[in-house]
Amino acid sequence: MTTAKMIEAMAKDTFCSTFHQTLREKYQRDTDAGRYAGSEGEYAEAMAALPEILSGEKMGLLAQYEDIATQVWEFHGTFGFLAGLYCGFRQCLTADDESDGGFSHRVVENISQMPRMKQYRENFAHLTELNALFEQLSHGESPETNEHIISLQCGWDQRAHSASVDGFYCGYRAAMEIIDYISPESQCKFRMMGKLLSVEYQLGFTRSYAEQERQSA
Description:
- This protein is 79% helix and 0% strand.
- By secondary structure, the chain is mainly alpha-helical.
- Helix 2 crosses helix 7 (143-182), helix 4 packs antiparallel against helix 6 (121-138) and helix 4 (56-93) runs parallel beside helix 7.
- It is globular and about 65 Å long.
- 28% of the residues are buried.
């Protein structure tokens, strides 16, 4: 087995169904806590209503949409983790001090904005196919039905984005753990605490004390 094949096999073992299920469980906990109640509530309403409205042919298109959207969701989680790992090493070992750890630059710009998103060809092809399916599902339907289809799209968009955020944070933390394990004398976790707190705030995991006071007032 070549080194390239070994790395490929290791990546498949790392980003297996367990990894993605862990991110899904994190997303479900956040939803249960109310963080995504709006988008998930509207998604659930759409999925309950659409089978009663759409033709059999369009329900087939809806199933295709769900399948491809799941693949996009998983890609975002994997990409987020790898970007977080890269950015965590970069912030600990260089003078880089982007307040969000590099999430906007390395994740959002790369996989969610043109023209960079084109370089990830398989994911870009999936996004292109999702847009085409969305147009086919919406064509000829009433405004009320199209609202449900939009809710479906928004629900999956939120899931993909959340996977990239949670994956990025896991990768960022993993980089810190690796550096501390290999080089305990570097005191990476201690030196990175300010940057970590900034990343957690920018990614929406924590609030400032002033924000907490306003909410509790």
